[in-house]
Amino acid sequence: MMCIGINAYKVIKRDNHEKIGGKMRLKDRLAIVTGGSSGIGRAISITLASEGAHVIVSDIDETPKRGKYHEKNTTTPTAEEIIKSGGQGTFLKCDMSDDQQIKKLVAKTIDQHKRLDILVNNAGICFTTDSQDTTTAAFDNLMDINLRGVFLASKYSLPHIKKSKTGRIINIASVHAFNGGGGPAYAASKAGVVNLTKDTAVELAPHGGTVNAICPGYIETAIQDDLTEQDIIESAEKTPLPRLGLPKDIGLAALFLASDDAEWITGISLIVDGGLLAPLPVS
Fold first, then answer.
1. Using CA atoms, how far apart are residues 31 and 50, in angstroms rounded to an integer?
2. What is the domain extent for residue 114?
């Protein structure tokens, strides 16, 4: 692997909390982040809050997941972490496989805050069994959370996001949306999210809002616990940039798509993978 000098990174490095032009990019905006207690959702929640958004951190459990490879020492609930840093965060419990809980999540948010500007559909699960070892019940449960949950959260949020001058929906998909891998249920669910993103973008566009997806590569979160150490080594070897992804990498991508800087970008799938998908296949 080609080594890139450290000075190249010093040029582009920027603290997450540094404000462009001294202004908070999401000041006074209200955001819901599903699956916000851990991993990518936690990083997105903290990043949006650092730029002025009041973040509703939604998850089935307020306690962050701790992984055997990554996020070993994460213990503080996300909303508490946001408040400690001077931001605004509130935890609301929600099971993204439950239609009524999703509806109540949105209704309670509107009841308490009278608005909704940003929805981040991040909640998801993953298992890597093949078709023969994947049960119908497991397949259906994953689809309920990863795809149906995105549809329902968007469905119930859209009437309110349409009223916002800065309406945004950001869906977290995966590089597996474009290739096999990750199991038949996971890959199919994320491909569905990519296409649902495009359809919802067309629906929201006349109201001035945007809908985009982020497709992460390997990110160092507790969801990687199903992998072996050899799997992780191979993921690193396949990633052209000289490190694996961090949750903050996705947090910063979400911040861009949620900000005014991305107001004329909609229906895209932003790949954030360290260059994983860049090399051409070798026969």
1. 12
2. 23-272
